[in-house]
Amino acid sequence: MVRMWKGYRDARCAWLEGVSTLDRKKSKYELELQPSTTLFLIIFAPRRGLLEAWSMQNGRRIFASTVDRHGRLIGIPRLSDHLLGHDERAASHLPSVFFLSSDGTIHHLWIPFHRALSDESDFAIHDSSIVKEINHMMKDGVVKDFSTWLQFFRALKTTRAMRETMDLLWRDCNVDCYRLVDIMVSVLQHVESFHAVRKSPDSDNLVTYVATISRLLDVYVHLLKINSEQPNTTTEEFEKADIAESLSIDKEMLDLCLQRISEHHTENDSSKERDFTLAEFISHFDLTQANLTTSNGTRLKNKLVKKTPAFGRLLFCGVLTGRCSIHHFVSSVLPQLDLLEEDFSDAFCAYWLSPCDDLVRRLRRVLILFKHLSEVDSDGQSWLTKAERNILNSQELGAALTLCLVVRAIAFNRKHSSRIKATTAWTQKSKKEMIKKHFTTSFVSFLLIKLIFEINSSSSSELDDESHHEDWDEVEISLEWWDLLLRHLQCMLVLKALPGDLRVCLSDLINSGPAYYREQIGRWSAGFSLDPEHLYDIFNDPTVVNPKIKWEVTIGELRKLFPISLSPELVVCDCAWECIGAWRRHKDKNKACELLEVWVPYTKTVKFVELLGEVGILQHGICFMLWDTFLRQPFRYIYDYLNRKSSKLFRMLTNPRFIHEHFPSCCTKILRLLRNSVRFAEAMNENEDSSNASIGHNLFEDFTEAMFEFQRRKQTKPKKPLSLMAGLQKPVNYPLVCHHHDLAMVIELQVALEEWPPGPKYLFDSIGERAFFESFYAHPLIPMGSVTESVREKRMDFLKKCVTHNGSSEFTRDLRFHIYDLADDWALSSDEIKSKEVITLFQKGLDCEARDVLRVMENMELLPYELFEIAVARVRKWFDTNEKEDLMMRSLRISFINDRMMRCIRESKMEVALVPPDDINQLMRQVRMCLSRVQPNDQAFKIDRLALDFEKLITMIQ
């Protein structure tokens, strides 16, 4: 409810919609721009002769006039009545309310849109026009006449308009900051005088806001002047011995840290850094914080809403490059900013831990600056905590290492100074208490007390003498943590030197567990072109490292840093996992599929897993985890697709031919390796010391163990290493694995040789089909070879069809092994399949390969007769291609051919390859040799005679 009207008798009402001349911004729900609208209520009271207009936005009267009492208020109704904002561009500007006087005069009622704002005050309308003028004057971010701008600003009457104009000045206007200082002085004087007159909370907040902007402007100008000066070259040079003492660290350790930085840190090109504008500088501060006060009336300190490297560069670059002294920076610049202590720490870390150069040369100034800043800290610990958090999350390892050196030195000095203060305070207190207690004792008691003091002082001096405990190292728990961070940062610098863009930081190490370095090497190997066997050799024998290849040198150095955890078997285990999981980490499915199709990570995964042959328990565990995590579900998509149940696989991949080349082969090899390694897991499971054997997969260097010992004190358990989880896997169900391996070989044969439909399920019975894709720890009863005769016939026909592809480009050596492995698992006759293979090879003219198969055949009952048909077809083919020979040769040929030979040639319909006559003779002799190994009968005798006659014929023709 907006308002209620009473006392208007016999009144007539009409609705009038006011429309602005400027279009408002389009919202996301609107298709086109719409004008701003407002609704007015027109009331005509005839008894009083009064015509009024009321704003429905706030319920205030905006117009009143006396009119003819005998007149008539006429409203033209439209479809959009009572629907404020209904967009009818043509109807919105048509007159809708009229007043008809008694003399017949028609008055059109029209109310300007801005009258809806009259509730705020007439000052708001006044200021809105001035703000428009200022916007027009500041067009394109340039102000040419500041005197006019100041006149406009002084003409404003509301704090809201003043605030808006101030925001336009420093945020959107490109003004010389040195000139802006004088303008801000005039603006601050005006708002202070304005507040002295109004004395309202809004005017007070405006004064605070302008004063804050003015103060930040002064700081910005001051920092610009500092950064524009020449660096001070007369400062002391960098000396390792001095800086080592200042950092409270051994010189050898400091040299090693600096060596790591110089070898592996990449310098930043500072010439590409753009200027940091005033608007960007002020936008880093929370300007609403300036209006808040504490309970005792004191104003709160400024607060940063964001900490960027550009802000830190403007703030700290001048003092770190020697353009101003540290004393001047701490005593003059920092008080003007009036920031919270933790904001200073975050701003410095954001700058220092960004890509920058001259890390080592500025180390001394950073140390001195940090000591001064830490002294400003109220509790003495928030600085260290903030710096530690930033170091843990930083990927700029060189900068993080230098900052860690500095923070460690400050922590060491704090512990040392606090220990001295505590010891001194305890000694003074004890002396006073003892003297007060024994003040009234006798002279003998006094001598005893003196003797006790002398003994205590001598014993304390002996304890302080380093010669008495020179073989002991003083260890402070908190300082040990910083030493561990230093050690790991050095190792990470070496790790990040590997080609590519590895994301390496200490927080990832803590979250990923002690096997973090192995995981990172695995991720690197997934994206880098290398031979898995060569990588294994480098970890196994560092002497094979080629000093001219940078990545091999880096791997060799990492092997020296981690002699326990980077054993070749454990690294290979993580490499296999990361290679196959690389495409799963991509959020974009299309890019992940492109990576999967082009890069083929599965091939590299299989090579890594094959290298684990000497560690069967690891091979068993990693094969099962790869199948269960990455392979089973996509492999099921292929199974369903070949059975015409689903096309999800083809929707997932942009290139469906990928399944013809890589994925089924990977599944087959992984399942074969799992099948062969089950015996190792079973033997380990039966062994009572199996738990001790897995300990070797969970051993790490002492500094890595110490790092996670600190995390255990925080009640956080580190993630288990992959090798440990693989070694703890229980033995899988061997028959079930064999069953899935057979399915994988069938699918690989079908998709490679395009021998489908029918799908793979038709080669298995219903029991075997239900067992597919069950957990390998389940125990269903699977009939491997004991199936119905119809299923056996389907399997034999399928294998014979597959073996007929021998000699083609798509038929590989692995596919041939799959055929005979399936025949062995299914208890089928391999000689029958070999007979089909021999026939196929002789038909294609591949006699050498066919004879190799014949040598390993045992049963060849029907083979000689089929070979004889091939030999006759070869003779026919040879005769058909030599029709243009001379008459003497033709007559010679006819004279040696009898009727039985002619009938065999005429009846031969088999298509064979054209081969030389010598190959035909050798095949005839092969037929006779095979006949000698079969049961003698009349047909064998007849074929033997014909083969001998053909052999003589060919010899005579040659």
Automatic annotation (TrEMBL):
Subcellular location(s) per record: Cytoplasm
Superkingdom of origin organism: Eukaryota
InterPro entries: Rab3GAP2, RAB3GAP2_C, RAB3GAP_N
Domain Rab3-GAP regulatory subunit N-terminal: residue ranges: 1-74
Stretches assigned to the Rab3GAP regulatory subunit C-terminal domain: 350-932
Pfam families documented for this protein: RAB3GAP2_C, RAB3GAP2_N
Any one cellular-component term (Gene Ontology): cytoplasm
Keyword Cytoplasm among record annotations: yes
GO molecular function, a single term: GTPase activator activity
Keywords of this entry: Cytoplasm, GTPase activation
UniProt similarity note: Belongs to the Rab3-GAP regulatory subunit family.
PANTHER family assigned: RAB3 GTPASE-ACTIVATING PROTEIN NON-CATALYTIC SUBUNIT (PTHR12472:SF0), RAB3-GAP REGULATORY DOMAIN (PTHR12472)
Protein name in UniProt: RAB3GAP2_C domain-containing protein
